[in-house]
Amino acid sequence: MRFDMHCHTKEGSIDAKLPIEEYIKILISKGFDGMMVSDHDSYGGYRYYKKMGLDEKYPDFTVLKGVEYDTLDAGHILCILPNHINFKILEIKGMPVKLLIDIVHYHGGILGPAHPYGIRYQSFVNSLKRHKQMMFMKQFDFVEKYNACEDEDSNHKAAYLARTYDLPGFGGSDAHRANCAGLAHTDFPDRAVIKSNNDLIKFIKTDGKDVEAGGTYYGKTVKNKVPFIYDIMIQAYWVYNKGGGIFNKIRHNHHMRKMYLKEILHSGADK
């Protein structure tokens, strides 16, 4: 099965221009079996997919629910939770990566760094200090080792990172526009039947080393075309991300309390 494992939609990412139904049509035309919607701090694209009944309209095409989370200290992390888990806290940017790892793993999910050698403030390696990287790498479940919007050097280093820590490597286009959709892929072996988040999580935890990834470089991002403007955007992003993380701390604490109160109530009901 072939998936695009890093997809942004118009319905879920403020900087994306590609509606999810058009995304699905493009991938089907290219021979893909599925995609993972990974909007920025949002499940908006996936919600729209379900609300509009696109799962029934395209029954042979699998759409997985993920999120590309903006951490306070470690760049962008791809998070995948089990089918029945829905957390508002993953739609509030700015948690530190340690807390994010604890929450996702506690609830049976998996996570890993997106474009780990990408630009500063948005990538794991270029955001965290060196002595902290090893500690967190050992807690990840996969690495995005091929991203169509990165360059050859970035992806080469990401693939080496996956090998070093013996982690499965995903491939994703990171597409925000139609001409990038499907330029990268993740291939699952024939024995893998990925029809839901639960299927993916189980496979990665038990047999994920056989996943393969690759693709074609996009080369038309703002970073490629006007690098000096992109540098200004990155500095602005740093201010936005840090400020948002501090502001959202109160909201994080509120949703953490709600999450654990719900756990306690469910635990009492089971007994």
Tags for this model:
41% helix; 271 residues; 10 helices; 18% strand; seven-stranded mixed beta sheet; single chain; two-stranded parallel sheet
- Contiguous low-pLDDT stretches (5 residues minimum) are 267-271
Number of helices: 10
Helix content: 40-55%
What name goes with the CATH superfamily? Metal-dependent hydrolases
Average residue pLDDT? 87
- What is the name of the CATH class? Alpha Beta
Which fold name corresponds to the CATH topology?
TIM Barrel
Which structural class should the secondary elements be placed in?
alpha/beta
Secondary-structure element order, N to C: EHEHHEEHEHEHEEHEHHH
User: Strand share of the residues?
Assistant: 15-25%
Instruction: Please outline the major beta sheet.
Output: 7 strands, mixed
Total domain modules:
1
Number of strands: 9
Report strand order across the widest sheet. 5-4-3-2-1-8-9
Please tell me how large the radius of gyration is. 18 Å
What's the CATH architecture name? Alpha-Beta Barrel
Overall, the morphology is globular
Give the N-to-C terminal Cα separation. 41 Å
